[in-house]
Structures are given as C-alpha cells and as structure tokens.
Amino acid sequence: MPAREGSLEAPTRHSLDWTNPKFYDEEDLFKELERVFDICHGCRRCVSLCQSFPELFDLVDESPTMELDGVAKADYWRVVDHCYLCDLCFMTKCPYVPPHAWNLDFPHLMLRAKAVKFKQGKTKPRDKILSSTDAVGALASLPGVSGIVNAVNKSDLGRKALEVTLGVHPQARIPEYHSNTLRKQLANKVSRQVTGEAAGNTTGKVALFTTCYNNVNEPDVGMDLVAVFEHNGIPITIPVKEKCCGMPKLELGDLDTVKAHMEENIPVLLQLVDAGWDIVAPIPSCVLMFKQELPLMFPQDARVRKIRERIYDPFEYLMLRHKHGKLRTDFKQPLGTVAYHAACHQRVQNLGQKTREVLALIPDTKIEIIERCSGHDGTYAVKKEYHEYSMKIVTPVVNKVKQLKPDYYGSDCPMAGQHIGHGLKDGTAPKHPLTLLRIAYGL
C-alpha cells in the first residue's frame, strides 16, 4: 500500500498483545522503536505535546548523522521514560494511526517498552512505591498519621528526606492526606436498595467509584459529585470495596498488577451493574482505564466489556440526562469567567466537551477552555528528574489562566488543577468543575 497522509478515517485501536512472549522480546521491541521513531522524526507534529518528542528530536539532531541511525539504542530509553501515556499523540496529532498502513500507536509502544523494563527488573523502587496508591493512601490516611505525614511533607527537613530517599523534587507539590476519607463519609450508602428514573441509556442511579486520589487526597470533590447528582434525583451508592483502577501500574509497565486489580474490581462492579446501577468515577484516568485500557488488555473478557458500556464520566452522564430533560437548571449563582482545563485522559475518550456544555448552561457564566496537557500525570511532576519538565509543559496553561484573569479555574483532573495552581504561585486554589456546579446550584 503506498504511503499517504492519514487522519482520513476514524482511528482504531488494536488490542494489547501483552500475554504474548514476543511482547517482552527486547530485540523485537527495539526494531519497532526504531521504525516508529524514524517516522516520528520525519513528521514532528507532536513536538509540543510532552517531553518525549523533543527528547527524540534532540537526540536525532545532535547525532553525527542527524538521522535516527546516529542515535545510540541505549538512548531510546530517554524517550520512553518521558512518556506518561496521556494518549494525546494517538488521538489528536498522529496522522499514521490505524487504519493507516504504518500502524503507529506511540503510547502503546511506550507502554510495551515500560513493560519490558519492568519485566527485566530495571524499574526504580521509587516508582514502584509512588504507583502503589492503595498502600500509600491507606497508610498515610490513618487517623493520627495523616496529620504527621502532611506536616512532614510541608517541612524543609521532610522534603529533603523525600528527595534523598524517594527522589521527590523539593519544589513539587505533594497532595495532602485525609483520615476522614471519601469512603468513610459515604459508608452509609453501601448496598442501598433504591430505584432510579431511567433516561435514555442511563438507569438514573449511580455507583461511585471513589478512586484512590479522591478517597484520601481530595474527598470534597467526591462529596460535591454526590451533592450534585442527588440534587438531580440520582441516588448514589459506593462499591463494598475497590482497588486502584490500575492506571498508575499501567504507566509503570506492571501489567500483572493491573490484571490483579482488574480481577478484584470487575466482579464487584459487575454485581452493581447487574443490579441496575450505572458507574461514575470523578477522575478521568480511572474512567479511561475501564473504558479503554482494560478492554484492550482483555478483549475477550465479557465482564470487562460490560463494565466499559456502563461506566461514565460525570459530565458525560449529566449531559446524557439533560438530553431527556432530566438535568435541573435551577442555578442560583453565576460563575463569571471560568478558565477550564480539559484533562488529557478525558479528551482522549472522545466524549466531546461535556464539562464545558454543562457549565455553559449556568447563566452569566463564560467558559474559556484550555486544551493543553498540564504535564502532571500523577507522579511525573513530583519526580526529581522530571519536575522541571512538567513545569515547562504546564507553563502555557498557566499563562493562559493569567491572561484570562478568571473568577475560577480548574480541571476535570484534580491533580492537573492543583499543578496549574502550583504554577500560578498566587495563592489561588483551583475549583473542580463538580465543585463549580455545586456552587452554581447553591448547595
């Protein structure tokens, strides 16, 4: 087939052949890295997305031949290590994704490389610890412990210790931990027997997958979701138990742990779906994990496919209800100008701008959307060797917020919102869109 420009058809995603022994063959991996890197070098459209592409192009341009053949294979890992699987290159920039004959899937190639590195035992202990969100969160949120952890994380001595022991950048923002977790606050909603008012494909009753981050770091966002949904007549429950969705371990290449988490989460969520509950998660990465990554890892698993069809982004769910006249618009308070950062892992779900659409219903409210990566990724921005790159990536977003001088700013990804605030350095705090909606309702 002759080479041609792509983007003429909708992109398709191939399943991840991660159980095939060839997947972990380093020689075969490097052949594919060489093929893809050479195509990327000849295109360069993705140079502004993250640090992986500038790293690649600098390696080529500074090589003796100024072509990929002049780059040492060992330096390929420098490109891999900067990729945090935001997926934007695949979904928004690359003209050579399937069904194009060149069949490029840069994020999943980086994932394969990370999996090879993990399988070879070359992953840093620091990265294993930071991606163990369940274990770290459970310990740091214990009553009596959370206050100590937060105090240590704010002290110069504590930050120096984190830098030395874990390689955490001393200027990086670290989220606070709360002992009054989201799951504790919603414990009375477990195993509820209620009915919902169906609208379109929605059942009108929702099981909230609380997520590791919202559970222990920003439980208020989860409570805002509950307030907004119940104001709209949508009862909420939570699963009897949940594990991390698996995204941190996926980004590490630890695919066996991703599978273990899937095997714990899916049966619990399936019971809820079979009982008539839809599922919503307030972190875009968690929704993406169930909607895309797990189905691509387990394409033959009917349970995974069923959850994929019943899990929703919160604003996607509200807009689906709005189409059938089931979203209340009795807003009490305008928001003025809102600088709204669209999170990468929400954008690549191809939902459209559902958050902007909901917030735009609020009278006397102007939504200014910012569609650039914040560069946070959950752990990338806190690591000593990557923090400065993350601040470089977020700078255009920060500059846009400064230019707009909004009444509020925030992101669907609370970590991205906080990273923007970290870049602003003006003391203002981000407001999650769910928080803004609660404010507008006057709840």
Can you put this structure into words, describing what you see?
The chain is mainly α and 443 residues long. It has four domains: 21-119, no CATH class; 125-166, no CATH class; 182-320, no CATH class; 329-441, 3-Layer(aba) Sandwich (Rossmann fold). 49% of the residues lie in helices and 6% in strands. It has 22 helices and seven strands. The strands form two sheets. The protein has a four-stranded parallel β-sheet with strand order 2-1-3-4. A three-stranded parallel β-sheet has the order 6-5-7. The model has no long low-confidence stretch (mean pLDDT 94).
Structural descriptors:
443 residues; mainly alpha; 4 domains; four-stranded parallel sheet; three-stranded parallel sheet; 22 helices; 49% helix
Helix content: 40-55%
| Count of alpha/pi helices | 22
* Count of separate structural domains: 4
In whole angstroms, how far apart are the ends?
59 Å
The largest sheet, given as strand count, sense and whether it forms a barrel, is: 4 strands, parallel
Low-confidence residue ranges: none
Overall average pLDDT: 94
The assigned structural class equals: mainly alpha
- Major β-sheet strand ordering: 2-1-3-4
